[in-house]
Structure formats: structure tokens, C-alpha cells
């Protein structure tokens, strides 16, 4: 059976929201794009940084070949993000954590806008652009507190080189992040997938796990995705317009 495509909130979904205790929300780049965050992806071999495509400058191989260049690239990206603010979708999701007794927010985004909106205990599948991680001891540091230009910052704890604490092409997800998200997906009653194309695995398997476990699956996106066929409802439009209307 095909899911219903709606711009209005169905009575069935409102009832589900009203009675739900355990809710999981997974967000992707579409949510942040509404705040002006550039995605950089989807351009094939499009040059995004000094002649290099996104898949190269944001790769594990580049981390090994030219760490200063990686830092220069991520410094540039943080410069773009510094003035951006959470949008109504981020703010609505932050309020939801007070509405449900068991609420989980899983994000593929690295921009920290969910936390800026007030969300707590965010499961970050792809890391956070505002953190750095030590190659040697593994300790993490807030780069807002680090004073460096385009040189490689060093660890406060051991003096080793730091790297951006994000998942690059060719790397595994951070230890425990996917496992936590999958565990929560197996027990949620209601699962929202917001602003993601649902094609990047293993993150894309989270809503599949929720659906297989019996959760009511809702997609919020301007257009259909490969996940749409599995959903119980599709809410077509911008997350910043739809999510505030879902609050019970």
C-alpha cells in the first residue's frame, strides 16, 4: 500500500502524537538547509575548495595526505556557519523533548544547530564541526576555544595533532552512535524522518529498523525519497513549516 502524501496533518497522525510516549526523530541536511547551511554535496565533480571536489577534501585520504588543507577547509566551513541560527524546525524538535517521556533525536548533520536550539543528548551520527579529536589520545576539544588560523591545532591533554571530529568519506561512524540510534529505533512507537534523502547508509537503515519493529513512520520532506515507499505518511513541504504544526 502506498503511503498518503499530505501537506495537512491527518487525524490519525495527530492521534498517534497525542498518545505516543516513545518518539524518535532523525534529521538530515534538509533541516539545516532551511537555516542557510550549504550542503556542498550532489555536484559530482563540482569544485568546492581550491580545485577539489567535496568527496576529496572531506575524505580520510586527504586527512592523511594534507592535514593543514583539511583544517583550512573546515575553518572555511565554520566561518560560513558562524552567523547562522536555528530555524523553526530545530526549535520545534527541541520543544518535543519535553512533550514525550522517551524522546530521541538522531542527526546526520554536523553543524550543531540542534544543540543551539536547545536539544540535549543528540545522537550525532556524523560528528560535529565545532569539535576536534586527538589522533593520539582520542580526547575531544571544542574548537571555539582554540585559537589557530590554518595551522594544525594541538591537543590540550597530550600535545598530539587534532583533526576535525566529523566522519569523513571512507571512515566508520563514531563508536556507539549507530548502535544507540538503532536500539532506540527498535523501541520507538513513532518515527519521524526529516529533511534527509535516506540514501546514505548505515544512517538510512535507522528508519527501516523502526518500521520493521512496528513504529509508525512519517517522512517530512519537500519531495519523495527512496524511503517514501516504506512510510505510513508523507508530509510534503519544508520542515520549518510542518514540524511546528505537529506539536500536541
- The low-pLDDT segments are 1-6
Shape: elongated
CATH architecture of the largest domain: 3-Layer(aba) Sandwich
Q: Supply the helix-strand structural class.
A: alpha/beta
Radius of gyration equals 19 Å
Notes on the structure:
The chain is of the alpha/beta class and 248 residues long. It folds into two domains: 4-36 and 85-126 and 172-246, TPP-binding domain (Rossmann fold, 3-Layer(aba) Sandwich), CATH 3.40.50; 47-83 and 133-166, SIR2/SIRT2 'Small Domain' (2-Layer Sandwich). It is built from ten helices and twelve strands. The strands form three sheets. The protein has a seven-stranded parallel beta sheet with strand order 1-12-11-10-2-5-6, with helices on both faces. Helix 8 (177-187) packs parallel to helix 9 (205-212). The protein is elongated and about 55 Å long. The model is unreliable at 1-6 (pLDDT under 50).
Amino acid at each position: 500500500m502506498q503511503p498518503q502524501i499530505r501537506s495537512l496533518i491527518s487525524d490519525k497522525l495527530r492521534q498517534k502524537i497525542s498518545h505516543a510516549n516513545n518518539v524518535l526523530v532523525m534529521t538530515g541536511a534538509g533541516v539545516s538547509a532551511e537555516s542557510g547551511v550549504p550542503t556542498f554535496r550532489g555536484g559530482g565533480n563540482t569544485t568546492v575548495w581550491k580545485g577539489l571536489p567535496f568527496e576529496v577534501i572531506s575524505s580520510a585520504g586527504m586527512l592523511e595526505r594534507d592535514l593543514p588543507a583539511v583544517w583550512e577547509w573546515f575553518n572555511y566551513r565554520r566561518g560560513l556557519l558562524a552567523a547562522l541560527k536555528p530555524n523553526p524546525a530545530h526549535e520545534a524538535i527541541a520543544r518535543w523533548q519535553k512533550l514525550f517521556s522517551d524522546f530521541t533525536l538522531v542527526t546526520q548533520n554536523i553543524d550543531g544547530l540542534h544543540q543551539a536550539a536547545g536539544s540535549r543528548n543528540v545522537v550525532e551520527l556524523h560528528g560535529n564541526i565545532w569539535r576536534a579529536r586527538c589522533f593520539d589520545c582520542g580526547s575531544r576539544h571544542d574548537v571555539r576555544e582554540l585559537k589557530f588560523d590554518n595551522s594544525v591545532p594541538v591537543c590540550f591533554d597530550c600535545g598530539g595533532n587534532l583533526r576535525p571530529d566529523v566522519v569523513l568519506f571512507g571512515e566508520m561512524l563514531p563508536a556507539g552512535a549507530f548502535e544507540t540510534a538503532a536500539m532506540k529505533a527498535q523501541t520507538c512507537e513513532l518515527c519521524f524522518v526529516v529533511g534527509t534523502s535516506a540514501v546514505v547508509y548505515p544512517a538510512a537503515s535507522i528508519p527501516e529498523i523502526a518500521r520493521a519493529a512496528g513504529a509508525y513512520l512519517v517522512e517530512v520532506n519537500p519531495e519523495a525519497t527512496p524511503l517514501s515507499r516504506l512510510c505510513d505518511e508523507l508530509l510534503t513541504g519544508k520542515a520549518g513549516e510542518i514540524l511546528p504544526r505537529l506539536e500536541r
